[in-house]
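[SOLVED] Predicted holo structure with adenosine-5'-triphosphate

Edit: marking solved, answer below. Original request kept for reference. I posted the sequence and ligand SMILES and asked for the 3D complex as structure tokens.
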Amino acid sequence: MSAVLKAQGLGKRYGRRWALSDCTLEIPPGRVVGLVGPNGAGKTTLLNLAVGQLAPSAGAIEVLGGRPASGPRQLAKVGFVAQDTPTYAGLSVDDHLRLGARLNPGWDGALARERIGRLGLDPSRKAGRLSGGQRAQLALTLGVAKRPELLILDEPVAALDPLARREFLSGLMEAATEHSLSVILSSHLVSDLERVCDHLIVLVDSRVRVAGDVDDLLASHHRLSGPRRDPARLPAGQEVVTASHTDRQSTLLVRSEGAIHDPAWTVGQVGLEDLVLAYMTPKTPDRPALEALR
Ligand SMILES: Nc1ncnc2c1ncn2[C@@H]1O[C@H](COP(=O)(O)OP(=O)(O)OP(=O)(O)O)[C@@H](O)[C@H]1O
């Protein structure tokens, strides 16, 4: 099966400012993808481009082999839960399911009712009277019962307490496994992403800083500590992501596909949260690395 999402030099500009620049990505099928980055990094912009709610200013994007929102078949293949888990406050849970059935050719009514029953949501309750967590679960139910091949969720857990977040994410994982869904979700909460995602994209300042399968990323990043050294003098193939120094000691987070054999370094593993935070740390390319990172 081909890529779920393929972007080539993709960009979106508002006036003179690029909300997303030069984005080249290829997401393999069957992944639960975490899209992470600071406020204003371009996450919503990328997701809106993927569902066809925005048109690119540069480059190209393909989702499940087609142009986003290019027709009914393409629309049926992609589910989208926008930021703030939108529901209609004046409509009941049941009304939402009826609407879902009317609007989606592949609607799985039995799945929707079973999920709502399992969540203990009163079908006659208006969405405006549900809690934030219940509304998020309703929005997820609508997204899953559409039976898309790809479900895209923009910060679905942002407003939820830790318990509701956990319930939401385990429901999402269950749906992804049961229905062989590919999922892309954005979040600021790296610890949540760590639990559910097997592919990661870090966006910073409108650019992709790193992307790949989590296992590969963890295997190719290393924490080096040892006697103080200028990071610019590392061997070719070792890319310094961050560096910090004391008078005598350097600690580097390095990307390297090969193993690090230099006996001067103590080499440690890197966790996903540290990896994400390292890529989110602003780079200062115009100053010598050693001094800038002192
Ligand atoms: N409609 C718009 N008009 C002008 N600028 C916009 C518009 N939408 C987004 N932007 C700008 O584009 C940049 C990226 O915004 P985007 O919403 O994609 O970021 P984000 O990573 O989703 O942020 P957050 O985590 O805060 O939701 C920001 O600088 C934002 O101000």
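OP edit: The pocket of adenosine-5'-triphosphate is lined by residues 14, 19, 37, 39-45 (CB under 6 Å). Thanks to everyone who chimed in.
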